[in-house]
Structures are given as C-alpha cells and as structure tokens.
Write a structure and sequence with these properties.
Its cofactor is Mg(2+). The chain has about 500 residues and is α/β, with parallel strands linked by helices. The protein has ten helices and 37 strands. The strands form six sheets. It has a 19-stranded parallel sheet that branches. A seven-stranded mixed sheet has the order 5-4-1-6-10-7-11, sandwiched between helices. A four-stranded parallel sheet has the order 29-32-35-37, with no helix packed on it.
C-alpha cells in the first residue's frame, strides 16, 4: 500500500528565541551535527510532501541561506509584523498555490527529535479518520506553558486553550498541544482568514482553527504521542543540551542495533549523519562528527575525534584528532596523531605517534612512524619516513609540494625543503637536509664532519652547573687514568 502524501509541510521557524540568550538565531543552534531547523526539514522531507516550506522572520537572510544549504528545494516564506503561529501559517499558505487541496502538515523548526516515522503515522491517522484537523498531543506531568487539550464528554477534541487564557480547571489538564498538526487544506485556509488577535497575547493563534472546525460541525482528532521527547522544543540552552544528549543516546543505540560494538555509550558521541560498519569497535571517549563514515571491523579510539572522515574496513585509529581525511583499509593511525584536511592514507599504511599530516597523499603500505610533520606531500607505496622528519612546505610566501617515490628509506631527522622530488628506491642519511631533487636509487647525505672543541664550556660558560659537572667528570677521568697507570707499573715490577 502506498503511504499517503501530504500536499504541503509548513515548518515554522520565524521566532527570535530570546531565551537562548544568543546572537545566533535559535533554529541555527545544533545538536547531533545538524541545526535544529535542519532536523525539522529532514523529518518533513521524509514523508515526501508535494511542497516543503519554512516560514522565517528573525535574521531572515541568515536563516534562509542556511535552509538553502540543507535542502535547496525547500521553499521560503516570510512572516510579516503580525505575531502568532496562525499568522505564520497564513503567510506560508500565501506563498503556495491558492487552490491547494489535501492535507497540510504543520511542524516547528525547534523540535529536533520529531521523526519522519511519526509524521507518517500522524498523516495516515488523519486521512484514515477523514477529520478536518488532527492535533498531536502528549500527556506530561508538568504542563506549565503548554496549550491544553479540552475534550468533550465523548472524548473528542473540543478546543485548545493557551496557558494565559486558561481557567484554573483547564490549567490542571495534563494533555498538552505539541503544536504539530495535520489540516484539511481548504478548512485551514478559510479558518485563518477569519481569525483575529483578541486574546491575552495579542496574537493570531493557530489553535483557534480547532474552534472554527468544531463550529462548522467538523471532527477534530488527537494523535496521542507516547514519546514526549519528539514533541519537546528548544527554548534555552539547557533544553538544547538535554535534547542533544537524548538524541545522541538514540543515535548510539541505533548504531549498536546495526552491528557496531560501543564499549561505553555514555562517553560516545555520534552525529546524525555518521555511519558505522558491522563489528567495528568504538572505545570510550570517541566523538564521530559530521559526515564521518567508518567501515567494518575497525577499531576506533579511545580518546578520538573524527570529523567528516572516511575510514576503510579493518583500520585502527587510536587517540587521534582528524578531519576531512581518508584512512584506507587496514591502515593504522596513532596514538596521538593529528590528521588535518586533505590527508589520504593508503591501505595498510601507518601514521604513528605524534605525527601531523596535512594535504598529504600517503601510499599503500607506507609508514610515518613517529614525531614528524608531513604537509603538502605525495608519498609513494612501501616507503618509510624516519622519525623526527619535517616536510618544509612554506617559504614565507607560498606553499610547495614534496614528492617521495615508492620503496624509499628515509633517515631520521630528514628535512624536505619543498619543492623537491625523491626518486623511487632512494635512501637518506640521518640529519639530512634535502634541498634539490634526488634520483632513483640514490643515497642523499648532508655530509658535515663532526667537530669537537674541548674546553669550550669552561671557557665560555664558567661558574655554571655544566662547567662544574664537566670539571668533576674530567677529574674523575684523570684519577682513573692514574690508577690504571699505577696498576700497570705494579704488574711490571712483579
């Protein structure tokens, strides 16, 4: 059976969100790697509406630009100076075709845990019951601040009363309005046109549409949602954190159900758009952000943050900070590695302890074991970069690239002063500074003889700890020499 398709989904995102105490519009704050409004748009897109629209006002251009990045096909409608959710929906309808029929769903840009599955169920219930309005409700222990659902004796929805307009008896009701609706399009358009702002807040209430429907003898249904998290909005940064934690808990559980092994869910943070393959082990204190993709049979962590990363099957990434990089199948990274954007590590290759890479293509089987910086480089297959090496890529004006061939063996403390090319199979000695190209199979050295200037410390650094230690060592060596000479003399006399 084909699921019902709404004519339109209207997402309300016009509010300023003053309780956030932020220069940023409320709907642009993020949890799970997405903005609040992005979560709302994704949920709405999941039920395949003919029209998807977001109503904006506060910081209009900023919010609209962000929406275009999230969903380029999403329509934008502007709310005018008249306040209220009813006016917001009315402005949204004005930007849509005038002859709309079917079902219009209304949601909010600050309800990030609402799912497409729930919206689909609400839509099916609404159209299956052939009612004029379906309102999503929940029962909560403290309904303060919410609109209350007032029912008739037969249990049908009579009206929705806002907190400021409610009587004491109505305020005692624990069934509350989520603000999420399914409307018959024709009724919604007609009802909004006749609404005024004669109420405690001087606003055009969307909730008054329920009263209009009842006055016309039309049925109003309630869809009671047991999962109250899906209807909870963000009004301040405390709620933002609470909803972020709950979203992460759900995301981590989904990852485990799909085959990931997560050692400590309480210290693991996984963004909404992250994917993790089967039997991958996530150790404690791991953050997987953005569009990170982890293959199967990997070991990630502990103490690792990966942002917009791609990690191949069977790879190991330990105590690492990485972003916008690729780790090939079977490769190993860390501990204490830093992968900056543009790093591409080939299959079975290694980036070791205290290694930083940037804009570097490292071939299959190659190794950068420890204590090195590799920036703006191409390294072939099967090559070993010795410890404490630096790819010197910046001349003070521009960046330059270094190319190291296949199966090279580069000594510790080698400096690659770009641009240079090292041919296949080349070697370098420890402490080499490479300033020009090296042909294949060559050994490159910085050949400078060792110089020893005896007595330099005593002459240039007198009365220091170093001078005193050197003097003591010299005296000890002289005494040992005298004793050795005496022993030889005694041996001769015998």
């Amino acid at each position: 059976m084909t699921p019902p398709r709404p004519t339109a989904v209207i997402v309300l995102a016009a509010g300023e969100g003053t309780r956030m105490k932020s220069a940023m519009p409320k709907v642009l704050h993020t949890i799970g790697g997405r903005s609040l409004v992005h979560h709302a748009i994704a949920a709405a897109r999941g039920i395949d509406p003919i029209h998807l629209e977001v109503v904006v006002r506060h910081e209009r251009d900023l919010v609209a630009a962000h929406i275009a990045e999230c969903d380029p096909d999403c329509l934008i409608a502007d709310q005018d100076e008249i306040k209220g959710t009813g006016r917001a929906v009315e402005c949204g309808l004005a930007a849509l075709p005038a002859d709309l029929t079917g079902t219009i769903v209304v949601t909010y840009g600050d309800v990030p845990l609402l799912t497409s599955e729930t919206l689909r169920e609400v839509l099916a219930a609404h159209e299956g019951a052939s009612v004029a309005v379906t309102v999503v409700t929940s029962h909560i222990s403290d309904p303060t601040g919410y609109g209350r659902i007032v029912r008739d004796a037969d249990g049908s929805v009579a009206r929705i009363v806002e907190q400021k307009d409610a009587t004491d008896d109505e305020r005692a009701i624990t069934e509350v309005n989520s603000g999420i609706y399914a409307f018959e399009a024709t009724l919604l358009t007609q009802a909004l046109s006749g609404l005024g702002t004669d109420n405690a807040q001087g606003e055009k209430y969307l909730t008054d549409v329920v009263g209009v429907a009842r006055a016309q003898g039309r049925a109003v249904a309630a869809y009671v949602l047991a999962d109250v998290w899906q209807t909870e909005g963000v009004n301040d940064k405390i709620q933002l954190a609470r909803l972020g934690a709950e979203l992460n808990r759900r995301t981590v559980e989904v990852a485990m159900r799909e085959g990931a092994i997560i050692r400590d869910p309480a210290t693991t943070w996984i963004d909404t758009d992250v994917s993790i393959g089967r039997d991958t082990v996530i150790e404690p204190n791991v953050q997987l952000r953005g569009a990170t993709t982890i293959g199967a049979d990997c070991l990630i962590g502990p103490d690792t943050t990966l942002v917009d990363m791609e990690v191949g099957d069977g790879a190991t990434v330990c105590r690492t900070q990485g972003s916008l990089s690729v780790v090939g199948p079977g490769a190993t990274v860390g501990p204490w590695a830093y992968l900056r954007p543009g790093t591409e590590l080939g299959a079975e290759a290694k980036i070791g302890t205290f290694v930083e890479t940037k804009n570097a293509n490292i071939g299959a089987g190659s190794k950068i074991p420890h204590l090195s910086y590799v920036g703006d480089a191409t390294i072939g297959t099967g090559t070993n970069i010795g410890a404490s090496s630096v790819f010197v890529n910046f001349d003070g004006v521009a960046k330059h690239r270094t190319t190291v061939g296949d199966h090279c063996r580069m000594g510790s403390d080698t400096m690659y002063v770009a641009p240079v090319t090292i041919g296949d199979g080349a070697y370098s000695g420890a402490g080499t500074v490479i300033r020009s190209d090296v042909p294949p199979g060559a050994l490159v050295l910085t050949d400078a003889p060792q110089r020893v200037i005896e007595g330099w410390v005593a002459e240039h650094r007198p009365d220091t700890d170093a001078a005193r230690a050197a003097a003591a060592a010299g005296a000890g060596a002289a005494g040992a020499s005298e004793r050795h000479t005496g022993d030889n003399e005694q041996e001769t006399q015998r």
